[in-house]
């Protein structure tokens, strides 16, 4: 009894199935799921929740459930018997608090305007900072902006924090999606989203991939289609393949699923 197992999953239903697969229960035992951290879904983010599985006595759990049901029925009964005037009075007391929000609070919940509307409201760095902070606030991730650097008109935003792995995603796909999203909002501004030098490491990996796939094309003569990549990553592949005189690259598809094909020159 009182066995506790910690699991991560995308939903409570998934946790329930996982618990059934790993637990070996006796006839008088069952389990209950305690939510420690709810899963999150926001745009392209899909963050797993944290759960605790507790093995409990069936009879004890049934007794607790019956007590909860009784308390719920009693609460509903009290609400039904409530006098209309008292209910109306409490409603009137709550309305002003809900309607009359402080001006500062209302301003915090407003979404940032487009970059075109903010042309005269500060530097591009400040505008970028405002948009990304809004995204972080809505996604409720433990992430913050380390710095924003302007390198020849290219704005590199460095992020850090406990939940940064969720923003990087598998092979940087989530980071690229965020970069694409911010880029569509920041018209005529080149934006790069990075974290702890991840983009440099990714570039080295992409160049190695290009050389490997290029050699495969030379060996077999067959063209190879790569996975969808951002414009920046496609440029890296194209540059690396350009050193292989017998090969060329071709872009196919539409953003954000545009990809490269490596093939022999005719």
What does this structure look like?
The chain is α+β, with helices and mostly antiparallel strands and 266 residues long. The protein folds into 3 domains: 4-81, no CATH class; 112-196, K homology (KH) domain (GMP Synthetase, Chain A, domain 3), CATH 3.30.300.20; 199-264, Ribosomal Protein S8, Chain: A, domain 1 (2-Layer Sandwich), CATH 3.30.1370.50. Helix content is 47%, strand content 24%. It is built from 9 helices and 11 strands. The protein has helices at residues 12-22, 58-81, 84-99, 103-109, 124-139, 164-168, 173-185, 198-220, 231-241, and strands spanning 4-9, 29-37, 40-42, 45-47, 49-57, 144-151, 154-160, 190-194, 224-225, 247-252, 259-264. Strands 1-5-2 form a 3-stranded antiparallel beta sheet. Strands 6-7-8 form a 3-stranded mixed beta sheet. The protein has a 3-stranded antiparallel beta sheet with strand order 9-11-10. A hairpin with a 6-residue loop joins strand 10 and strand 11 (259-264). Helix 8 crosses helix 9 (231-241). The longest helix is centred in the first third of the chain and has 24 residues, at 58-81. The termini are far apart.
